[in-house]
Design goal:
The chain has 430 residues and is of the alpha/beta class. It has two domains: 365 residues, Metal-dependent hydrolases (TIM Barrel), CATH 3.20.20.140; 44 residues. It has 16 helices and nine strands. Strands 1, 2, 3, 4, 5, 6, 7, 8 and 9 form a nine-stranded parallel sheet that branches. Strand 7, helix 10 and strand 8 form a beta-alpha-beta unit. Helix 2 packs parallel to helix 13 and helix 12 runs antiparallel to helix 13. The radius of gyration is 20 Å and the shape is globular. The termini are far apart. Bound molecules: zinc ion (ZN). One of its GO terms (molecular function) is metallodipeptidase activity.
Amino acid sequence: MSEISSHHGARASRSRLPSKRFLATAFATLVAAAPTARGDPADDPSTAAADAIHKRVLTLDTHVDIPFEFMSPQADPGKPSKLQVDLPKMREGGLSAAFFVVYVGQTSRTAENYVQARLGAETKFAAIHKMVETYPDQIELARSAADVTRIRASGKLLALIGIENGFVIGKDINLLRHYHDLGARYFGLVHAGHNDLGDSANPVSWLDKGPEHNGLSPLGRQAVVELNRLGFIVDISHASKETSMQAIELSRAPVIASHSDVGALNPIARNLDDETLEALARKGGVVQIVAFDSYLWVGVVAKHKAQEALRREYGIDDPFAVGNLPPDKAAEYFRRLLALDQVWARTDVKRLVDHIDYAVKKIGVDHVGIASDFGGGGGIVGWKDASETYNVTRELARRGYSEGDIAKLWGGNLLRVLANVEEIAEKSRD
Ligand SMILES: [Zn+2]
């Protein structure tokens, strides 16, 4: 997809990677135009109480995508920017911490593409490191649960790193250690499209013909063992149900879904059904409920039909990528796709909290968290970017969650998992 990348000024060497960020930028622009909850009367005492809680708790968003040009003048998070998450927006919305995500899109599994995937990952790691090196008095990289506590006490913002798509290791398990050394602390096994580690919840028609491994491959099983040994959290978001259940079963440490929603409320393959949620909780893990419109809500049938018709018109199979469209056609496609959001509005913070409520009732408040997927298609009415993060806490408070529960949902649970994963890794080294 070189055409799309060059259209957006990215380097040609990244041309093989599907441009999720294209989608993200387009969506961000649209969501920015949506009405927000800012009209809430500021003197409402319940709002003030919620905002006070929001300031006291660690607010950790487990999934923030970054573009390949992150930390270039076009996408500098240290300045007010078009990014949904930058440092000024984090401060404005009271978002203390974010997992910045090293994502590469799935392509066909050739030696050349393995190299490209690794280069893509290295580019994003370098950009995140550059962010914390450029703004050391504002944000610091946390490499452990203890780091999070220490940095939080210093008053600085926090960056953590997650990996999305095990394709970044190709078939080389040794690369896990390398990425862990670079600071990554969770590892998403797959993305859209199967890879060498396991099956995806969303096979891609131009890559996949039905299930490939029926869950984890032997290499995927090896990867889970190594992730446990290194102190890496295993992340099942985007994995098929079989892959997820097998990873949860095999892992000696708690597993997370870094950005997924509840299947019972919106039964799509990308969400977690009750059985998976329960298995995740039994292992001590956490589902990070994500502010992603189409995962939260099946929406009106007419909107889905219109989206499908549009995809057909442009010959696009994969709702997460744009296929091989030339740049002008891709831009036109996105303009028309976004226009549909103006006819049928995106969902809102209330529905996000409906999913949180459901998961809390099903598996308990110790096993639920929050993610945005900003930069990767996330963003809903009321939480369009990091500057509106306080709206999530307001809705949680409105539904009766205590400060203690809000603290768990907003990062306490995830920190517990990270500490637990570290402990299990340490023991395995003894
Ligand atoms: Zn994702």
